[in-house]
Amino acid sequence: xxxxxxxxxxxxxxxxxxxxxxxxxxxxxxxxxxxxxxxxxxxxxxxxxxxxxxxxxxxxxxxxxxxxxxxxxxxxxxxxxxxxxxxxxxxxxxxxxxxxxxxxxxxxxxxxxxxxxxxxxxxxxxxxxxxxxxxxxxx
Length: 139
Prior knowledge:
Elements: E1 6-8, H1 22-29, E2 47-52, E3 58-64, E4 67-71, H2 78-89, E5 92-94, E6 101-103, H3 105-108, H4 113-116, E7 120-121, H5 126-134
Helix pairs in contact: 1-2, 2-5
């Protein structure tokens, strides 16, 4: 079974995520996509990417209008891609196993009130996101 954090954008404390800028998502992910370009856009308009970071770490990324699922991200550089995507979208990451939210200070006030309390506020870097979601790396 795979672990898949999700990315969503909230505005003004609203309960529901808002639409994502799909052109921005493509701009961030396409340079790292190693999958079949013909499979990038689904019949329903959803997007799918198989991203690989410079260090060889990978994840499958599935995108629709209101959210992004990062399926089985491997430890390493792929979290740099995730952090860049989250920062540029002004979004947050949600840990599916705990429901914890990882966000920058800038997005904290936009979260629904019930998510604000337990949110982990970090600088949106690869290391901070990876540690917040998976715990510290072991040597």
